[in-house]
Amino acid sequence: MARKSLIQREKKRQKLEQKYHLIRRSSKKEISKVPSLSDKWEIHGKLESLPRNSAPTRLHRRCFSTGRPRANYRDFGLSGHILRKMVNACLLPGATRSSW
Protein backbone atom coordinates (compact mmCIF):
# COMPACT_ATOMS: atom_id res chain seq x y z
CA MET A 1 0.00 0.00 0.00
CA ALA A 2 1.37 3.37 -0.99
CA ARG A 3 1.60 6.17 1.53
CA LYS A 4 -1.45 8.40 1.52
CA SER A 5 0.66 11.53 1.10
CA LEU A 6 2.04 10.24 -2.21
CA ILE A 7 -1.43 9.42 -3.49
CA GLN A 8 -2.67 12.89 -2.51
CA ARG A 9 0.33 14.49 -4.23
CA GLU A 10 -0.55 12.61 -7.41
CA LYS A 11 -4.18 13.78 -7.21
CA LYS A 12 -2.97 17.35 -6.78
CA ARG A 13 -0.82 17.01 -9.91
CA GLN A 14 -3.80 15.69 -11.87
CA LYS A 15 -5.91 18.69 -10.86
CA LEU A 16 -3.13 21.11 -11.81
CA GLU A 17 -2.64 19.40 -15.17
CA GLN A 18 -6.35 19.70 -15.95
CA LYS A 19 -6.39 23.34 -14.87
CA TYR A 20 -3.48 24.43 -17.10
CA HIS A 21 -4.03 22.00 -19.99
CA LEU A 22 -5.64 24.51 -22.36
CA ILE A 23 -3.10 27.24 -21.61
CA ARG A 24 -0.21 24.87 -22.22
CA ARG A 25 -1.70 23.51 -25.45
CA SER A 26 -2.48 26.95 -26.89
CA SER A 27 1.03 28.22 -26.04
CA LYS A 28 2.62 25.28 -27.82
CA LYS A 29 0.48 25.90 -30.90
CA GLU A 30 1.51 29.57 -30.85
CA ILE A 31 5.19 28.62 -30.75
CA SER A 32 4.82 26.50 -33.87
CA LYS A 33 3.00 29.29 -35.76
CA VAL A 34 5.24 32.25 -34.85
CA PRO A 35 8.15 32.73 -37.30
CA SER A 36 10.43 35.04 -35.29
CA LEU A 37 12.75 33.66 -32.66
CA SER A 38 12.26 36.50 -30.19
CA ASP A 39 8.49 35.90 -30.11
CA LYS A 40 9.10 32.20 -29.56
CA TRP A 41 11.28 33.02 -26.55
CA GLU A 42 8.51 35.20 -25.07
CA ILE A 43 5.94 32.44 -25.45
CA HIS A 44 8.44 29.95 -24.04
CA GLY A 45 8.81 32.22 -21.01
CA LYS A 46 5.05 32.03 -20.47
CA LEU A 47 5.27 28.23 -20.57
CA GLU A 48 8.07 28.28 -18.02
CA SER A 49 6.03 30.48 -15.69
CA LEU A 50 3.37 27.75 -15.34
CA PRO A 51 3.73 25.45 -12.30
CA ARG A 52 6.03 22.49 -12.84
CA ASN A 53 3.49 20.03 -11.49
CA SER A 54 1.03 21.09 -14.19
CA ALA A 55 3.12 19.37 -16.86
CA PRO A 56 1.59 16.08 -18.08
CA THR A 57 4.96 14.33 -17.91
CA ARG A 58 4.90 14.69 -14.13
CA LEU A 59 1.80 12.49 -13.85
CA HIS A 60 2.31 8.90 -12.82
CA ARG A 61 -0.25 6.12 -13.13
CA ARG A 62 -1.02 4.33 -9.88
CA CYS A 63 -2.84 1.12 -9.05
CA PHE A 64 -6.52 1.73 -8.39
CA SER A 65 -6.71 -0.49 -5.32
CA THR A 66 -3.27 -0.22 -3.70
CA GLY A 67 -1.77 2.98 -5.11
CA ARG A 68 1.36 1.16 -6.29
CA PRO A 69 3.24 3.28 -8.86
CA ARG A 70 4.94 0.49 -10.81
CA ALA A 71 3.89 -2.34 -13.12
CA ASN A 72 0.49 -0.85 -13.96
CA TYR A 73 -1.72 -2.17 -16.72
CA ARG A 74 -3.55 0.67 -18.46
CA ASP A 75 -6.50 -1.47 -19.52
CA PHE A 76 -7.38 -2.41 -15.95
CA GLY A 77 -5.79 0.36 -13.87
CA LEU A 78 -4.26 -2.26 -11.61
CA SER A 79 -0.73 -3.29 -10.74
CA GLY A 80 0.60 -6.64 -11.88
CA HIS A 81 0.26 -8.64 -8.68
CA ILE A 82 -3.26 -7.35 -7.92
CA LEU A 83 -4.27 -8.11 -11.50
CA ARG A 84 -2.95 -11.65 -11.15
CA LYS A 85 -4.84 -12.18 -7.89
CA MET A 86 -8.08 -10.93 -9.43
CA VAL A 87 -7.69 -13.09 -12.53
CA ASN A 88 -7.00 -16.16 -10.40
CA ALA A 89 -10.12 -15.41 -8.35
CA CYS A 90 -12.15 -14.98 -11.59
CA LEU A 91 -13.07 -11.39 -10.71
CA LEU A 92 -12.12 -9.91 -14.11
CA PRO A 93 -14.42 -10.95 -16.95
CA GLY A 94 -12.65 -11.87 -20.15
CA ALA A 95 -9.21 -12.26 -18.57
CA THR A 96 -7.77 -15.76 -18.52
CA ARG A 97 -4.84 -17.31 -16.75
CA SER A 98 -1.92 -18.31 -18.87
CA SER A 99 -0.75 -21.91 -18.72
CA TRP A 100 1.91 -23.67 -20.70
UniProtKB/TrEMBL annotation:
<keyword id="KW-0689">Ribosomal protein</keyword>
<dbReference type="GO" id="GO:0003735">
    <property type="term" value="F:structural constituent of ribosome"/>
</dbReference>
<comment type="similarity">
    <text>Belongs to the universal ribosomal protein uS14 family.</text>
</comment>
<dbReference type="GO" id="GO:0019843">
    <property type="term" value="F:rRNA binding"/>
</dbReference>
<comment type="function">
    <text>Binds 16S rRNA, required for the assembly of 30S particles.</text>
</comment>
<dbReference type="InterPro" id="IPR018271">
    <property type="entry name" value="Ribosomal_uS14_CS"/>
</dbReference>
<keyword id="KW-0694">RNA-binding</keyword>
<dbReference type="GO" id="GO:0009507">
    <property type="term" value="C:chloroplast"/>
</dbReference>
<protein>
    <recommendedName>
        <fullName>Small ribosomal subunit protein uS14c</fullName>
    </recommendedName>
</protein>
<keyword id="KW-0699">rRNA-binding</keyword>
<dbReference type="GO" id="GO:0015935">
    <property type="term" value="C:small ribosomal subunit"/>
</dbReference>
<dbReference type="GO" id="GO:0006412">
    <property type="term" value="P:translation"/>
</dbReference>
<comment type="subunit">
    <text>Part of the 30S ribosomal subunit.</text>
</comment>
<dbReference type="InterPro" id="IPR001209">
    <property type="entry name" value="Ribosomal_uS14"/>
</dbReference>
<keyword id="KW-0934">Plastid</keyword>
<dbReference type="InterPro" id="IPR023036">
    <property type="entry name" value="Ribosomal_uS14_bac/plastid"/>
</dbReference>
<dbReference type="Pfam" id="PF00253">
    <property type="entry name" value="Ribosomal_S14"/>
</dbReference>
<keyword id="KW-0150">Chloroplast</keyword>
<keyword id="KW-0687">Ribonucleoprotein</keyword>
